[in-house]
Design a protein that fits this description.
Radius of gyration: 16 Å
Largest sheet: 5 strands, antiparallel
Number of strands: 8
Strand order of the largest sheet: 1-2-3-4-5
CATH class: Alpha Beta
Bound molecules: coenzyme A
Shape: globular
Distance between the termini: 24 Å
CATH superfamily: Gcn5-related N-acetyltransferase (GNAT)
CATH architecture: 3-Layer(aba) Sandwich
Length: about 190
């Protein structure tokens, strides 16, 4: 069976980066990123060190259970932690009108913004999801205020589907209104990727 031999979260390389599974040594970088209010502006709150520790444990678990979970971006050579990018099955997908789904997402240390890192990593994950895993489509969503994240979706050639209310945030929450983008296998092929 193909499913049995494909590692859904393999070590991938791009021109500048290594994309790999989470390891215990990633905790300090993850915690630094999650504690930074500039990085966490469009999330409900910054995370404490302990909260990042449980997030790392959850992500390592999801890698085992679902085969994928936003994976680490590290710099080739130095192996420095830069952030994460990858595919993930949202834990709350039954509450999403467009679920079940696989999403693509990203988060970078603030010093690493403006270098094309998220786009380069996401291009590799899109190709892996649509060509190797043969997913029909990959979605991405972000609060309507998060223009930097939306620009990544646009640079990837994803289609803007519309807006929706995030089901896991209470009514009136500043981040409730979100924008939804999608890349289908057909659209991807139509853009000349082979
Ligand atoms: C969302 C986020 C990953 C976007 O980061 P980003 O640096 O803007 O996006 P990229 O890594 O793709 O880099 C693109 C930028 O680098 C520039 N760039 C510089 N060198 C480049 C290169 N070699 N290749 C491509 N782009 C390059 C681009 O021109 C672009 O600049 P611009 O923003 O002025 O248009 C980042 O803002 C972030 O981590 N935010 C916090 C977490 C978050 O909100 N995640 C999304 C939640 S849904």
């Amino acid at each position: 069976m193909v499913e049995a031999v494909i590692d859904c979260c393999p070590r991938l390389t791009t021109e500048r980066f290594v994309l790999r599974k989470w390891e215990a040594r990633d905790l300090d970088g993850l915690a630094e990123m999650n504690a930074d209010p500039r990085v966490m502006e469009f999330y409900p709150s910054v995370l404490s060190y302990a909260e990042s520790e449980s997030m790392l444990a959850r992500y390592m678990d999801a890698q085992q259970q679902d085969g994928v979970c936003f994976s680490v971006i590290s710099e080739k050579g130095s192996e420095r932690f830069l952030g994460y990018c990858g595919l993930k099955v949202p834990g709350y997908q039954d509450h999403l009108a467009f679920g079940p789904c696989v999403e693509i997402g990203w988060r970078l240390l603030h010093n690493e913004w403006g270098k094309g890192i998220a786009t380069e990593a996401a291009q590799t994950w899109l190709r892996f999801g649509l060509e190797t895993l043969q997913l029909n489509e990959i979605v991405s969503f972000t609060p309507i205020q998060n223009h930097r994240s939306e620009k990544v979706m646009q640079r990837l050639g994803m289609e803007r589907i519309g807006e929706f209310e995030h089901p896991m945030l209470e009514d009136g929450h500043r981040l409730k209104r979100q924008v939804l983008y999608k890349m289908t296998g057909q659209r991807y092929l139509g853009q000349g990727h082979d």
